[in-house]
Amino acid sequence: MNISQLLQRSAQVFGDRPAVLAGAQLLHDYRQLTARVVALAGHLRGSCGVRPGERVAIFSANCPEYLEALHAIHWCGAVSVPVNYKLHARELAHVLADSGARVLCVSAALQADALAAGAEAALLQVLGDAAWQRAAQGQPLAMQERTPDDLASLFYTSGTTGRPKGVMQTHRNLLAMTMAYFTDVDDVHPDDAMVYAAPMSHGAGLYNYAHMLRGARHVVPASGGFDPAELVRLAADVGRLSLFAAPTMVHRLVEHVRATRGDGSGFKTIVYGGGPMYVDDLRRAMDTMGQKFVQIYGQGECPMTITALAREHLADTAHPCWERRIASVGVAHACVEVRVADADDRPVPTGELGEVLVRGDTVMAGYWNNAEASAQTLRGGWLHTGDVGSLDEHGFLTLRDRSKDVIISGGSNIYPREVEEVLLLHPRVREVAVVGQRDADWGEVVVAFLVAEGGEVPDAELDAELDTLCLDHIARFKRPKAYRWVPALPKNSYGKVLKTELRACL
Ligand code: AMP
């Protein structure tokens, strides 16, 4: 099977239903979209010589042609390499060289960066330019046969540490991930609309498949990204809008809705994940926009499908475990097994911390050209996520931190997330990231980097208040030894805090 069969099926079943919208404006129905994809696939094969199994990269901010490029690549049996468009030319060069992609689909705005990264001008396909439009009307290509274990996509990890590695995602992985959306995240109706507010090269783009399969609408905001005011307008104009958003985006959207006295109407489902959502932010989000939220926990190595915290669980405020549950990442997706294990991969008892391991049809085939890292990460047939967490008696997983982020002070483990949750209780703290600083006496000590609410310049009194707050909530040894106030936290282009950078400046 080729993951493109989803699109082929939708062209038959939902041919005249709206497929792609630029902002609120309809561009193509499913029949038209598929005709363009099939012709573009013919162009990739005929003019660019792309063979099945060959890698073809996409380097662009969100745009309607992104979907065409992605599906044309699958259709002709090639392997998509979605590259984060915020990467530096040097990082793009690494992805191109490592993946061996000859052909690069690029937005006009990023063409110069692509050339600087060493991409060959002749093999640049500029999304939406005149040649692209001609190719989209050209000779069709029959969908190429693929086996479930053939490679569909190479996803380069976001690289909060080290060099990005190419995660090999097969057609089976993508199909299982698509089905998992329906079992564990949300049902999708043809009247629904998926809006791409987060980068299509990452989680948001992966949700296109479930929405393709159900003949829903695909909305690309005119801004090509995340603008809360634009999203609210689209929700009103397009309706039944669903989106995937990082927690920082949810926060900004909620603050905008509150400031404009809105209520979230027009939004159907907001799936959040990719990083920790702090409980206070989540409560505020639900109070403001209602029960529209679903959390997922995944990683490139197991895209979007390790656990999910369903709308029903978030809504079940009367449940005795509700407080704990909303701080968790939910229960294992139906398509995977999840366990928490010790350093020897033995499952730990309920409630105890260990590394999160995953096994199932959505787990990657391995890392591209990196047998050693693949063997290490997939040892024993389980994906070792590098995340530390615990399972409760009902199967809810609570994440603590990346194992690399755990602070060991005086022989005791300190999980930064726990300290961060406490510091965020203070109304004058907007954002926080806790890291370990090397220390001759203790091994490491806790340091908190903080962003003040409203950009105010904090005073020593506030540090003292934070100390008291910590002493009221957590063990004394977990209290930060230093508070560093900064205007903003360093984040990668997906909004994840770069703790390596924070540690480097200590
Ligand atoms: P990436 O491969 O770039 O998507 O990063 C995956 C990592 O992001 C995971 O291994 C987790 O550390 C983190 N992550 C993903 N989803 C969540 C979530 N819902 N809550 C907390 N951390 C998350």
Question: Can you describe this structure?
Answer:
The protein is α/β, with parallel strands linked by helices. Among the domains are: 1-16 and 30-171, Rossmann fold (3-Layer(aba) Sandwich), CATH 3.40.50; 328-404, Roll (Luciferase, domain 3); 407-504, 2-Layer Sandwich (GMP Synthetase, Chain A, domain 3). It contains 18 helices and 25 strands. The chain has a 9-stranded mixed beta sheet, sandwiched between helices. It has a 4-stranded parallel beta sheet with strand order 4-3-5-6, with helices on both faces. It has a 4-stranded antiparallel beta sheet with strand order 16-17-19-20. Strand 3 (55-59), helix 3 and strand 4 form a beta-alpha-beta unit. Helix 10 (228-238) crosses helix 11. The longest helix has 17 residues, at 30-46. The radius of gyration is 23 Å and the shape is globular. It starts with a helix and ends with a helix. The model has no long low-confidence stretch (mean pLDDT 94). Bound molecules: adenosine monophosphate (AMP).
Q: Helix and strand layout, with pairings?
A:
Elements: H1 5-13, E1 18-22, E2 25-29, H2 30-46, E3 55-59, H3 64-75, E4 79-83, H4 89-99, E5 103-106, H5 111-116, E6 124-126, H6 130-135, E7 151-156, E8 166-170, H7 171-185, E9 193-195, H8 203-206, H9 208-213, E10 217-220, H10 228-238, E11 241-245, H11 247-259, E12 267-273, H12 279-289, E13 293-299, E14 302-309, H13 311-315, H14 322-326, E15 331-332, E16 336-341, E17 354-360, E18 366-367, H15 371-377, E19 383-391, E20 397-402, E21 407-409, E22 412-414, H16 416-423, E23 429-439, E24 443-452, H17 460-473, E25 482-485, H18 499-504
Parallel strand pairs: 1-10, 3-4, 3-5, 5-6, 9-10, 9-11, 11-12, 12-13, 24-25
Antiparallel strand pairs: 1-2, 7-8, 8-18, 13-14, 14-15, 16-17, 17-19, 19-20, 21-22, 23-24
Helix pairs in contact: 1-2, 2-3, 10-11, 11-12
The protein binds adenosine monophosphate.
